[in-house]
Design goal:
The structure holds two protein chains of two kinds.
Chain A lengths: L7 E6 L3 H10 L8 E6 L7 H9 L4 E6 L10 H19 L6 E5 L5 H18 L13
Parallel strand pairs in A: 1-2, 1-3, 3-4
Helix pairs in contact in A: 1-4
Chain B lengths: L1 H13 L4 E7 L6 E6 L20 H7 L8 E5 L1 H12 L8 E5 L8 H8 L4 E7 L2 E6 L2 E6 H4 L2 H4 L11 E2 L14 H7 L3 H13 L6 H5 L24 H14 L9 H5 L8 H14 L27
Parallel strand pairs in B: 1-3, 3-4, 4-8
Antiparallel strand pairs in B: 1-2, 5-6, 6-7
Helix pairs in contact in B: 8-10
Classes of the chains: A alpha/beta, B alpha/beta.
Chain lengths: ~140, ~325
């Protein structure tokens, strides 16, 4: 059987992490191809419900990445997001869903190298956890 | 009770209130029922005891939408009511100047389904309290139950039996029941393995019929349109998939994170006795430890998730 290849959704903020991904691309930095990127205006735009919907729809992991604290294009979007994500992580952990399936990072537009490392790390972490089996909707179960 | 009625009558006249939201004796035994008292004479029926378990703060949301604006309201407030009211005021859901919060000490309220189980089909006609036991009487029977076994679970861990904010307080402030430590239930469950916790929540939530009674009973769920009612995008599936039950309960708790006052209205409303509180309690603990915030203690501090500090802990971020 082929090795399990996780499917991961990455919500990247338009101003930092998406540009960071772009930089990783133009710099020809190699990283695993397991992520599907969704560009969002700000990490604060990411409703924790989006993350849960991804888990429901059969994705094995979710990454949310935004600007470093203090660098938010909208001044405080990432600060508010940080609080929301802390609570979401707590809840997933408490319910018994592996909290490592959901990851957060700060990647600036200049950190192409860091972006590739984040993606590699998230992919490896989720690969080690195996396919998502909790909270997946019936129609997405294999 | 006479004393309570007289004092509320005085407040009604002094503050020229249009309405007092309180309780009267319900049509079922051992049930107090919410009542809008619109005249001083009505207030003769006012009661407050352990059978008054509804959360009166819930009615403010409806009053706010009244054509011509809200009336001047006096509201009988247990600790949890008062906190829910404070939270609504903070969130701009009700004008503070239209409210007279009448604080009363609360010794915990009965959980109707626990009583129903203890009665096993017998019909009660009254009860009396002696020390730590409640004696329920009916036609040809009398059963004695430890008080802590028939109170709502949230009352057992309640930290605020008296209104933290009020305009007038009637009676002597009550001591917390303290039957359990504040987060005892959460710690009990947290001590189990993740798989055991998953099994616990699966068992609880798979019973959920998504009647949304917990949402409707919640004083702080006042959105005009709830995410579960949206058709496009359809956030929550309409089928029987337990995954959608999880989504509903997690997101409901998320929306109440840092706002929930643990009044227990959700658990009391649940027709299937699902443990709908515990997840919110875990979040309450996290909010307290991480953001040092307790909901509903004053009229100024914004809820934890509507605020931030630059030095919030971020150990979970890569």
């Amino acid at each position: 059987m082929a090795e399990f290849e996780p499917k991961i959704v990455a919500f990247l903020c338009n101003w930092c992490s998406y540009a960071g991904a772009d930089l990783a691309g133009v710099s020809r930095i190699q990283y695993p191809p397991n992520t599907r990127v969704i560009r969002v205006p700000c990490s604060g735009r990411v409703d924790p419900m989006f993350i849960l919907k991804c888990l429901q729809d059969g994705y094995d992991g979710v990454l949310v990445s935004g600007c470093h604290p203090g660098d938010c294009h909208y001044i405080s979007g990432n600060y508010v997001a940080r609080r929301k994500f802390a609570i979401l992580k707590t809840m997933l952990e408490f319910i018994g869903i592996e909290p490592d399936r959901v990851q957060f990072s700060w990647v600036s537009a200049g950190e192409g190298e860091k972006f590739s490392k984040v993606i590699s790390r998230v992919t490896e972490t989720v690969r080690a956890l195996g396919p998502a089996d909790k909270m997946v909707k019936k129609e997405y179960r294999e | 009770m006479k004393d309570l009625i007289d004092k509320v009558k005085t407040i009604f006249a002094d503050e020229s209130l249009d309405l007092v939201i309180g309780f009267e004796r319900g049509s079922l035994p051992l049930r107090g029922t919410p009542r809008f008292f619109e005249t001083v004479e009505d207030l003769d029926n006012l009661i407050f005891d352990a059978t008054c378990n509804n959360i009166l703060a819930k009615y403010l949301a409806g009053e706010k939408k009244r054509p011509g604006g809200p009336r001047k309201i006096g509201i009988i407030a247990k600790g949890c009511d008062a906190r829910a009211i404070a939270q609504m005021v903070v969130e701009d859901q009700f004008p503070r100047e239209k409210l007279v919060i009448i604080g009363i000490p609360c010794g915990g309220v009965f959980n109707t389904s626990k009583i129903r189980k203890a009665l096993a089909g017998r019909i009660p006609d009254g009860y009396r309290t002696e020390k730590d036991v409640v004696i329920i009487t009916g036609n040809g029977f009398e059963i004695t139950l430890p008080r802590n076994e028939i109170l709502q679970n949230n009352c057992l861990t309640c930290q605020h039996p008296n209104a933290p904010q009020f305009d007038c307080f009637i009676g002597e402030p009550a001591e917390p029941i303290g039957a359990k430590a504040h987060f005892a239930e959460v710690e009990e469950l947290a001590a189990k393995t993740p798989d055991e916790r998953w099994a616990y929540f699966t068992k609880e939530y798979s019973a959920c019929i998504r009647c949304y009674a917990c949402r409707n009973a919640c004083p702080l769920c006042y959105c005009e349109e709830c995410f579960v009612d949206r058709i496009n995008p359809k956030w929550v599936g309409k089928g029987t998939d337990v995954s959608d039950n999880f989504l509903y309960h997690i997101v409901r708790t998320l929306h109440l994170a840092g706002r929930c006052v643990d009044c227990g209205a959700c658990a009391a409303a649940c027709p299937l006795d699902i443990d709908v509180r515990i997840l919110g309690k875990r979040v309450e603990k996290e909010v307290l430890e991480r953001f040092e915030y307790v909901a509903g203690l004053d009229f100024e501090t914004p809820p934890a998730l509507a605020a931030f500090r630059e030095d919030d802990k971020e150990e979970f971020i890569m």
